[in-house]
Write a structure and sequence with these properties.
about 120 residues; alpha+beta; single chain; 3 strands
């Protein structure tokens, strides 16, 4: 008599549950991280050309948020330091991601480019 091989029904169900939880987390977190990288790219591009005023930088950021679909932060949330020869832009924000019912995640993001403007450990 040959010995049977393979997974039992319980093992298949347990693997399906674990895989669905991992996929749920991935699909819930993907837009949050995509937005963070869009914010990071936008800020990095804005500090390249010095000589802009605070108002010009905030207007430019507002225009870019429309293109990149950034909704977590507003131009008022940026910390900006401008001098005639350098620009520093920083942002620190939190996002809440609901997973299921009463379970969610709180993610903290921070990025600065150019001259340092953010204080360490708020």
């Amino acid at each position: 008599m040959k010995q049977q091989r393979g997974f039992s029904l319980l093992v298949v169900l347990a693997l399906a549950i674990v895989l669905s939880v991992v996929l749920l987390g991935f699909f819930k977190l993907l837009p949050v991280y995509t937005e963070y990288f869009a914010i990071k790219k936008t800020i990095d591009e804005m500090v390249v050309t010095p000589g802009k005023t605070d108002g010009e930088l905030r207007r430019e950021f507002r225009d870019r948020t429309t293109v990149h679909g950034i909704v977590s932060i507003k131009p008022e949330d940026l910390q900006i330091l401008t001098t005639p020869t350098a620009i520093g832009i920083g942002v620190r924000y939190r996002r809440e991601v609901p997973l299921v019912d009463h379970l969610g995640l709180i993610l903290s993001f921070e990025h600065e480019a150019g001259t340092p403007v953010l204080e360490s450990n708020p």
